[in-house]
Design brief:
mainly alpha; about 100 residues; single chain
Length: about 100
């Protein structure tokens, strides 16, 4: 009997963790009652889809960071991006200069 009670408790913990992750990472698209009352297959699908999306986002972010890193101690001038040339404004303001 104790084993089944532990299984129920671990299931409830995982259930509420999945609900929390969907609500938190759904960016306001889901509320607690909607996620709690979802069919299990839909809740699993939603969780898996959100997880895949955030994993892809993290992967692309890490790839872009690794390409743009410059070692400050030994900089390679070819990796430093060119800064755009900024022209001064061509308009005149009527505000007084103090």
């Amino acid at each position: 009997m104790a084993g089944s009670l532990e299984n129920i408790q671990s299931y409830r913990i995982s259930l509420f963790q999945v609900i929390h992750e969907i609500i938190f990472h759904g960016n306001g698209g889901y509320d607690y009652n909607t996620v709690y009352n979802m069919p299990i297959w839909l809740r699993k699908f939603t969780f898996k889809t959100l997880k895949n999306w955030y994993n892809q986002k993290a992967e692309s972010s890490s790839k872009s960071k690794s390409r743009n890193t410059i070692d400050i101690a030994n900089p390679d001038k070819s990796k430093i991006p060119n800064s755009p040339v900024r022209n001064p404004p061509t308009y005149v303001t009527k505000a007084s200069r103090k």
